[in-house]
Each structure stands twice: as structure tokens, then as C-alpha cells.
């Protein structure tokens, strides 16, 4: 049962062929079997999971109207607050932090009686592309345990691929849902900025972060987006607009769909096998009646440096709150207040988080603000304008999700620039605040390749339609790793 999708299990639950408790026990049996190899979870919440599963079964037996995620096991990335359950951001500075409240999306899922299996591993404070920056351990890619699962939502993607959950939530600041989805051969959707509440998401870069689904197919991504999307007064960046039923957009048609293939993401630095897979995907769309043309996005060459000024600047500000005073780790080696601050942050933060805090503090400092941060904001505007021009011609844009398949653990650990470039195709989307989905489109060296489909702002329906149509014409999403 743990290998099925949420929509398949929903039908079985409605027909009373299985119970939520049985599904939940199957998932935890899989976790018990494989977790020592995959290491997807920071903590498990079996007691809470079984409690929700029992409540879901009661609701199903009562004949009430049952929402699609009722009784379905879901993993939650460990940077989303869960009341009374340890929330660490995979950082030693929050090792024993128990939030006093639930994130909005956690509460929404709890109200639906979804079944929370546990909190998944990530790069510390979501800063990384491989989950090697976790303060606890490196998650392994279920397709090849010697390779990374991607990051920062590597735990959520690996848990989904390894059938250690049915669905998962990730967060995406510069590709942190889509890149691990690509590496692990699953579906990852980053919604439009403002569509999903960020209340209770422990911030990395507030103008970039978005919560979104990681699932086994596109239908599940639409179901989970239905559950978490919507206006939230508690989040000042939340957009107050009607939320459609995304399941209605799952139409198996791409006829006359105008598709732009981003040429700037098909050149230098992209593996040949990845390029071939994306070109083949373009031909699949053409066979369905879509019109595919190349489009150039010249400002994309500035996306990575722009991101690595804006994101660390925001991180420097956001992470200032972790000082050992109100919550989290506090150094015992502290003769006075200043040393307490210094030692707490020195002991609690890992090397990548320290690097980004220092970069962010530098670009915001007097004398450098105009030269770096202000210039990056202007470059961000130009990238957004490139997208606006493109969407006057095209309904959606396509590109590789990542320049390569999953790399070996340790391969890029000592080369930050090489690691940063692994998000070259995903970062522009976050800078512009647009929706994008990654779904499997091929293999290279036995590892999955991801196709990225990008939509205009709040055009999730068109994005999901294109992804669903492609998925119905291929079998890549049906392939599963053999652990």
C-alpha cells in the first residue's frame, strides 16, 4: 500500500477496501525496513500518525464527505513548525526546539486528518543543494545510496521516492523542491509566491521561500496544492485571491499549447544526456499538438550571482534571532553577554550557514549596500521582465530542472561555487516569484532526469495541465528505485 499514490489510496479508503491505520502501518513498516539506509527523517511521529489514522477511519465509517487527503500519510520538512513536536531546521542551534504553534499548512492538513509520519531532513536552514549541510546526517538518494538526494528538501524527496510516505511537503527558496524531486525521480511543485501561507515556515530568505508538494505523480501534486493553497491573514505576503480546484486542470491535452524551450538552459554546463531528455520531452509535446519554439532569456546569466546576494542578505537578517536568548541552543561557555552571543552562534551554526550569514552581512554593510544588494535587486527586476516578455508569446516554458543527475556524496562538498551552480535552472523562477513543476523525463547512468515546466504568476492550472498531459504520454513517473 505504501507504494500507491494518494488518489489511489483515497479510492480504496472510500470503498472501505483498506483502512488508514493499515496504510499508516505499511508506511512505518517501510520506514523501519529502509530508514537506516536512506536517512530521510530527523524525527518520526508515529503516535500522532496512528491517532489521526484512527480518527480518519471513524470519519470514513460515519459516511461523512471525505477530503482526498483524509487518512493519507504525509511527511513534513523539518523547517515547518509543528506544535509540541521537535522542529530543528536540521540545525544544532534548534536541536531541542518545540514550537508553541503549528504552521498554517500543518494545521490545514491536521484539520483534514492527514497522517503526519514525521519531520524530514534538510540542508541546515534550507541552505544547500544536497542535504550534506544537515547538522545531523546526509540523506541518501534511494536510486543510488552513494549519491545525494538533492536539497534542501532532500529528506522529503527521498522519503517519497523510497515509499516511506505517500506525500511530502518541501520548501523552495532557489530550487529546493524541484531539484531534489529531479534527483529522486518524483514530482515537485513550487507554487507562485504568495499562494501558500508561509506562516510557521522558519524563514531562510523571506522574499523567495515558498512551501509546496513533493509527490509520486502530478495528480497528487494538484490534490496537495488544493489542501495548502489559500489566503492567510497571519502571513503578510499571502495573496488574497480565489483558489481554483487544481484537480480540474488535470486535462490530458496539450493541443495548441504554446511552449518556449529556454535555450539559455540548454547550453554550456548542462549534461548531454539531460539535453537529449529535454529535447525528447519537447517532441512528446509536439506529438500532442503543442507548438514548441526556442526562447532566449539573456538575463539568466545574472540569476545565480543575484540570488547569492539577495538570499544571504535576507538570511543574515532572519537568522539574527538565533542568539541563545529566547529559544534554541545557548552556549555554556559564556563569561558575559557578548561571548554568549558569539559562542552560541559559533557552536550552533554549521559552516555553510555561517558562510551565508557572513556574505549577507557584508553585502548589507555600509559602503557595500549600493554596490551589491541594490544592484542585485535591479538585476532581479530584469529577470522578472524577461519572463514577462516570454509569457506574452508562450503559455508555459520548459527547461531541465537540474544541469545533471544526482552527483556522488562528497563530490561537491568542498566546492561551494560548483554546488551553487546546480540550481542554475531553478533560481530564476524564485527571483520572479513564478510557479514551476519538476517531473521525471528520463534517465542517465541509472539516475532520474527532471523536466521543469514554468508557468506565469498564478498560472498553476496551465502548469499542471501541461505536466499532467506529458505524464500521461510517458511512463517515467511509474519507475521506482529498488532499495
From TrEMBL:
Pfam families hit by this protein: Amidase (PF01425)
Catalysed reaction, written as an equation: L-glutamyl-tRNA(Gln) + L-glutamine + ATP + H2O = L-glutaminyl-tRNA(Gln) + L-glutamate + ADP + phosphate + H(+)
Keywords: ATP-binding, Ligase, Nucleotide-binding, Protein biosynthesis, Transferase
Annotated GO MF terms: ATP binding; glutaminyl-tRNA synthase (glutamine-hydrolyzing) activity; transferase activity
Keyword flag Transferase: yes
Domain Amidase: 22-464
EC number(s) recorded for this UniProt protein: 6.3.5.7
Active site location: 77 (charge relay system), 152 (charge relay system), 176 (acyl-ester intermediate)
Gene3D superfamilies (alphabetical): Amidase signature (AS) domain (3.90.1300.10)
Function: Allows the formation of correctly charged Gln-tRNA(Gln) through the transamidation of misacylated Glu-tRNA(Gln) in organisms which lack glutaminyl-tRNA synthetase. The reaction takes place in the presence of glutamine and ATP through an activated gamma-phospho-Glu-tRNA(Gln).
Subunit structure of this chain's protein: Heterotrimer of A, B and C subunits.
Family designation: Belongs to the amidase family. GatA subfamily.
Protein known as: Glutamyl-tRNA(Gln) amidotransferase subunit A
Taxonomic path: Bacteria, Bacillati, Saganbacteria
Gene name of the encoded protein: gatA
Amino acid at each position: 500500500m505504501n507504494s500507491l499514490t494518494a488518489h489511489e489510496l483515497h479510492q480504496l479508503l472510500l470503498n472501505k477496501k483498506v483502512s488508514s491505520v493499515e496504510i499508516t502501518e505499511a508506511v512505518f513498516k517501510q520506514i523501519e525496513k529502509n530508514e537506516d539506509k536512506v536517512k530521510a527523517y530527523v524525527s518520526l511521529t508515529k503516535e500522532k500518525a496512528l491517532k489521526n489514522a484512527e480518527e480518519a477511519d471513524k470519519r470514513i465509517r460515519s459516511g461523512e464527505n471525505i477530503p482526498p487527503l483524509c487518512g493519507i500519510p504525509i511527511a513534513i520538512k523539518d523547517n515547518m513548525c509543528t506544535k509540541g513536536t521537535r522542529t530543528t531546521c536540521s540545525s544544532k542551534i534548534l536541536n531541542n526546539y518545540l514550537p508553541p504553534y503549528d504552521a498554517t499548512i500543518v494545521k490545514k492538513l491536521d484539520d483534514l486528518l492527514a497522517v503526519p509520519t514525521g519531520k524530514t531532513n534538510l540542508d541546515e536552514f534550507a541552505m544547500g543543494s544536497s542535504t550534506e549541510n544537515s547538522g545531523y546526517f546526509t540523506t541518501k538518494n534511494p536510486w543510488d545510496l552513494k549519491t545525494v538526494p538533492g536539497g534542501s528538501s532532500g529528506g522529503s524527496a527521498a522519503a517519497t521516492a523510497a515509499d516511506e510516505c505517500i506525500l511530502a511537503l518541501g520548501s523552495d527558496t532557489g530550487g529546493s523542491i524541484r531539484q531534489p524531486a529531479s534527483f529522486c525521480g518524483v514530482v515537485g511543485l513550487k507554487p507562485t509566491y504568495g499562494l501558500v501561507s508561509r506562516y510557521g515556515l522558519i524563514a531562510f530568505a523571506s522574499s523567495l521561500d515558498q512551501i509546496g508538494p513533493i509527490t509520486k505523480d502530478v495528480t497528487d501534486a494538484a490534490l496537495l496544492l488544493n489542501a495548502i493553497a489559500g489566503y492567510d491573514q497571519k502571513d503578510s505576503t499571502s495573496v488574497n485571491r480565489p483558489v481554483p480546484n487544481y484537480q480540474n486542470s488535470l486535462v490530458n491535452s496539450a493541443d495548441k499549447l504554446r511552449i518556449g524551450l529556454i535555450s539559455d538552459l540548454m547550453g554550456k554546463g548542462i549534461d548531454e544526456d539531460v539535453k537529449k531528455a529535454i529535447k525528447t520531452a519537447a517532441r512528446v509535446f509536439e506529438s500532442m499538438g503543442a507548438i514548441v519554439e526556442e526562447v532566449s532569456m539573456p538575463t539568466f546569466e545574472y540569476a545565480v550571482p543575484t540570488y547569492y546576494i539577495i538570499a544571504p542578505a535576507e538570511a543574515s537578517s532572519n537568522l539574527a534571532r538565533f542568539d541563545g536568548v529566547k529559544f534554541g541552543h545557548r552556549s555554556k561557555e559564556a563569561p558575559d553577554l557578548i561571548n554568549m552571543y558569539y559562542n552560541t552562534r559559533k557552536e550552533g551554526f554549521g559552516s555553510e550557514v555561517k558562510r551565508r550569514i557572513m556574505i549577507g552581512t557584508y553585502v548589507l554593510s555600509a559602503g557595500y549596500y549600493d554596490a551589491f544588494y541594490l544592484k542585485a535587486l535591479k538585476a532581479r527586476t530584469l529577470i522578472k521582465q524577461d519572463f514577462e516578455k516570454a509569457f506574452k508569446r508562450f503559455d508555459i516554458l520548459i527547461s531541465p530542472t537540474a544541469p545533471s543527475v544526482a552527483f556522488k556524496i562528497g563530490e561537491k562538498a568542498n566546492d561551494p561555487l560548483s554546488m551553487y551552480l546546480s540550481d542554475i535552472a531553478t533560481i530564476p523562477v524564485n527571483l520572479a516569484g513564478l510557479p514551476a513543476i519538476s517531473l521525471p523525463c528520463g534517465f542517465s547512468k541509472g539516475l532520474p532526469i527532471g523536466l521543469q515546466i514554468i508557468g506565469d504568476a498564478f498560472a498553476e492550472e496551465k502548469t499542471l495541465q501541461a505536466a499532467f498531459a506529458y505524464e500521461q504520454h510517458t511512463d517515467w513517473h511509474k519507475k521506482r528505485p529498488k532499495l
